[in-house]
Each structure stands twice: as C-alpha cells, then as structure tokens.
Design brief:
The complex is a heterodimer. Chain A has helices spanning about 1-30, 35-40, 45-55, 60-75, 85-120, 125-140, 145-160, 170-200, 205-210, 215-235, 240-250, 260-265, 270-300, 300-305. Chain A is mainly alpha-helical. The two termini of chain A are about 10 Å apart. Chain B is built from 10 helices and no strands. Classes of the chains: A mainly alpha, B mainly alpha.
C-alpha cells in the first residue's frame, strides 16, 4: 500500500508543475502589453512601466517563471491590483463559502440520485425506470445557469419561500445547492442504475434470490454494496464539475465564494487574482482526484497492483 | 429515444437555417416603448429589455449555438483523433509527451480553463471557439489512443504491416476506422457540451458579445429582470435545454446502436 501511495503521489507532481506553468503563462497570453491591458488604454506610460516593474514583467521570462513557482510553493501569489490585498488572503477569506456550497450540492445530489438510481434498476423497464431515466437526462441537459434563475423565479419571487441571493442562513443555501447539485444528481443516478444492473447479473445475486431473498433485498443488501465503489469514484471525479459549476452558481446567487471572486476579478482585469483563483481550483481538483484514487486503492486491492 | 433526439436536432437545424428568413421581426429591431412586454399573439415569446422580439432572437441564437458546436466539435475531434492515434500507434516518447499534455489539460476541471483563456484573450465568439477547441481535443485524443492501442494488435493491422503498407496508410485505412464509432458518439455528446459551454461563457459575459443574439447572452440580459420579466430568462433557457437534450438523446441512442457491449447489456438484462 505504501508503494502504491508513493507512486501515485509522485505521479501528481509533474501534473501540478504543468498546471502551475499553464497558469503562469496565462498572463503572457494577453494580447499586447499585459500591464497596459490591466490599466486600460488611457493609462500613462509611467504608470504602465511602474506596474510592469511591480509584477516583475520587465524581468527575463525564466526569472519570472522561477519567482512564480517559488511563490506558488510558499503560498505567495502576489497582490491584488485593485485592493492591494495579498491574493492568498483574498482567496482564503472566500474559501469557506465555496466549500459550504460544494458540500451542500454534493449532499443534495447523493440524497436524490442514489434512491432514484436504485428504483430505476429494481423496476427496470417499467414506468419508474423510464421516468427516472428521463429525469436524469433532463438534469444533465438543463444548464445550472438556467435552473438557478428558474428556481429563484418560482421559490423566491412567486412563492416567497427562500431568499433570492446572498449567504447567511441555511435558507440562503437551498437554491444554490439544488441548482448546483442537479447535474451531478443526474449523472450519479445514471451511474447507480448502470452499475447496479451490472451487479445484478452476477451469480451471487442469483444465489441470494434462490435462497429466497426478495428482489428489493437482493438489490439493496447485496448488489448495491458492490456497486458503491464506482459510484464513490464518480462522486470524487465529479468534484471538478461541481467546482466549475460553483463559478456560475455563485455568480447567479451572489454567493461570496471563490467562483464569484474569479468572475469579478476578470471584470476588473485583476490578473494576479484571476491566476490565484484558477490555480487554487485546479490544485484542489488534482488533490481530490488523488484522494479518490488512493481511496479506490484502499478499498479495492486489485488497483494497487496494476 | 434517439429518434426523439434526431427530431429535436432537426428542428433546431431547420430553425437555424430558415428561422431568421421567415420570422416576422428583425432580431435586432428595437421597440423601446414596449420593452419587457410579456408573450402575446404578435410576439410569441415577448419582448426583451430593449424591446426586441425574443422569438426571433431565439431563432437567430440557434445559428450561433449550432455553429459553435459544429466548429468546436470538428476541430477537437480532428485534432484529438490525429494526436490520439499517433500516441497510441507509435508509443514511446511521442506517446509519453502527448499523454503528459493530456494529463495537464485534464487537471483543469471542465470549463475552468476555457474561462481562464477567454479572460486573458478577451471575450469574443472566435476566442470562445478557440478556448473550447483547445480543451475539447483532449477527450477525443484519450478515447482514440485507447482504441488504437487495442487495434494495433488486431490481425488485419498486423497483416497490413507485414505486407509492407506504409504507416500513414495503416493508420488511416485500418486503425483509425476502428475508433470512429466511439468518436461519433463522443462528437454527438460533444455538440451538446460545446453548446452548453458557449452558453455558460456568454452568460458570464465572457462569450458572444451583445447585440449578437446568443442564448447565453440573452439569459445574462434577463438576470436583472427576474422580478418584472421572467420570460426573458424562460425562453432562451428552454431553447438551450431542448437542444442539449436532443444531442444527449441522440448520443445515447448512437452509443447503444454502435457499442456492442451496451447493446448486449440492453438486450439481456437480469430477468426478475
């Protein structure tokens, strides 16, 4: 297990280096002079030169790259152009809101998807199955940037049950969590159904049925437990989609998290903050994938020896 | 289901091709005095914040969505197939290099890299297509690489090699065709994905810029009028969901038809 762990962690290092390199090069993809672009057309040449010096853009590329990497490792990602606040501090301040939203969305997804997937598999080919399948295809097709406003129209404006935007009480969390979790719920329900059907073909299920276990018991007690591994993996892998979805959901519901910070920073051309947000989201995603892989190896010994 | 999907896609294509020509209103003509008016017999989907006919704009938006989908999927599937088959067929250092690039691009979740690219390149339709293609090829490359690794060992491929066929011929005539069914399924689902991604970027203000009628831009315009004019949000969103659902239905149907594994699973499930 230790060797598996070490190998898997070692494989992550070049990926992280690649991610950092890509994020570093973003600023150099800006057409024309990045400093001029950040300050706008009307900025004086002195101001542009000063900003260029402040960001180190006047140094050789290799030196800039080295400085960026050293900074990233130490957690120093420069300062916001607009507020002069350290980028890391701005991100850390917004992190709890995003974590709260992502966790709630995943909870909503699991709570809806697992029973739906099980029901579809148990009553395969019936109206229940068709209903569940259509519902999950709808969930995948309806964009969260439409579902969010739609839910707000119904539950906030028409019924007045929940607040339209902001963060504070649990009531603020409901609409963002549901609109962010819907797509994940749809994917999870499909996966639960598919893996369950796969398991149901196994002989141990037939044996359980032959011993007199009811259909529901055969599914829930026997097949479902074995189908959990791919389902859990999927939840881990879908964490990235939840993070990007959060960028949109936070913008819709004025949720003060990292996604909203990213979009606001893009609007202000605050590129150090943009780079910081992107780097953090990507690194979190890589980390989550690593954890998913390690857990997978932990529960299924076959993976470790591949 | 795939028939329903095909029908939806067909409706969208017809709407995109002929809609703007037959619709009674110019999608950019403004009738400011009647701005935000709800749906009526004259204006089926109502009027937007500048008094433009939403029905005509939804039709015109179908053009943008389908065009983005077609261009992004064409570029990504072509580049992905070429790079994936090269990586899978030749192996070694070439495979190593391409696979590492794929790993790094896959380390960015979904839309994030597209958001980052458009943020620095500037918001425009061209940059949206560029950004989505830059991240889109990765999925095809990974898929094709896997298929080619398998196909390389097929007897007819080894026979072609033994007969002295040159590498390009083996790849184009024998190896790549084995991956095409999977690529077709991925491309159909990818159309839906690209359309959603464009709408998301435009919704965030990072994609197609006003006054060009894109569904995402229209949704963005509707955000400030959720209270007084929800129809600004309802209709463009319905169009996106409808078309994406169509491509998902079609893709699912194609997968069942083209993939022997799911076909077998579909016809011989557990009998209970």
């Amino acid at each position: 297990m230790l060797r598996f762990l070490a190998r898997r962690v070692a494989l992550t290092i070049p990926v992280l280096l690649g991610v950092a390199t890509l994020v570093f090069s973003l600023i150099h993809l800006i057409p024309g002079d990045p400093a001029q672009a950040m300050l706008g057309e009307s900025a004086s040449p002195e101001d542009v030169a000063e900003l260029r010096a402040r960001l180190g853009l006047d140094r050789p590329l290799v030196e800039q790259y080295g400085r960026f990497l050293r900074g990233a490792v130490r957690g120093d990602l420069g300062r916001s152009l607009r507020t002069n606040e350290p980028v890391t501090a701005a991100i850390v301040e917004r992190m709890p809101a995003t974590i709260e939203l992502a966790a709630a969305a995943m909870l909503v997804a699991v709570a809806f998807a697992i029973p739906l997937g099980i029901a579809a598999a148990v009553w395969r080919g019936t109206a229940v199955d068709h209903g569940a399948t259509t519902l999950s295809l709808l969930g995948i097709s309806i964009p969260n940037f439409w579902l969010g406003p739609l839910l707000a129209i119904i539950f906030s404006i028409e019924l007045g049950w929940l607040p339209v935007s902001g963060r504070g009480t649990w009531a603020h969390l409901v609409l963002p969590a549901v609109s962010l979790g819907a797509a994940l719920a749809a994917i999870l329900a499909r996966m639960t159904r598919a893996t369950l059907l796969e398991e149901l073909r196994e002989q141990y299920v037939t044996a359980a049925r032959a011993r007199g276990a009811s259909r529901v018991r055969a599914v829930v007690r026997h097949a479902f437990r074995n189908s959990l591994i791919p389902v859990i993996t999927l939840i881990g892998l879908q964490f990235g989609a939840v993070l990007t979805g959060a960028v949109i959901t936070e913008t819709i519901f004025a949720w003060p998290g990292i996604g909203r910070l990213l979009i606001q920073s893009i609007g202000f051309r605050d590129y150090p903050l943009v780079q910081g947000c992107i780097l953090l989201i990507a690194v979190t995603y890589v980390g989550m994938n690593l954890v998913t892989d390690l857990l997978y190896g932990l529960v299924d010994p076959r993976i470790r020896y591949e | 289901m795939s028939r329903v999907g095909a029908a939806i896609v067909l409706i969208a294509v017809v709407a995109a091709l002929f809609g703007p020509a037959v619709s009674r209103f110019d999608p950019s003509a403004q009738e400011l005095a009647r701005r935000l008016d709800g749906p009526s017999a004259t204006h089926w989907f109502g009027l937007d914040e500048l008094g433009r006919d939403i029905f005509s704009r939804v039709l015109a938006g179908a053009r943008i969505s389908l065009m983005v989908g077609i261009v992004v999927v064409s570029i990504s599937s072509f580049v992905g197939t070429v790079l994936g088959s090269i990586a899978g067929y030749f192996g070694g250092a070439i495979d190593e290099t391409i696979s590492r690039v794929i790993d790094i691009l896959l380390a960015f979740p979904g839309l994030l890299l597209a958001i980052a690219l458009v943020a620095v390149l500037g918001p425009s339709l061209t940059n949206v297509v560029l950004a989505l293609s830059l991240i889109g090829w990765v999925g095809y490359a990974r898929l094709v690489r896997g298929q080619v690794l398998r196909a390389r060992e097929f007897e007819f491929v080894q026979a072609a090699r033994a007969l002295g066929a040159d590498t390009t011929r083996i790849l184009v005539q024998h190896v790549i065709p084995t991956a095409l069914p999977a690529v077709t399924v991925q491309a159909t689902l990818g159309m839906g994905g690209a359309i959603l991604a464009e709408a998301a970027l435009s919704f965030l203000g990072l994609g197609v810029q006003p006054p060009t009628p894109s569904w995402g831009t229209m949704l963005n315009g509707g955000r400030t009028h959720l209270l007084d004019a929800p129809h600004l949000t309802i209709f463009p969103g319905l169009a996106i969901a409808f078309l994406v659902l169509g491509f998902n239905f079609l893709g699912d149907g194609l997968r069942d038809a083209l993939d022997p594994v799911t076909r077998r699973a579909a016809s011989s499930g557990p009998r209970q």
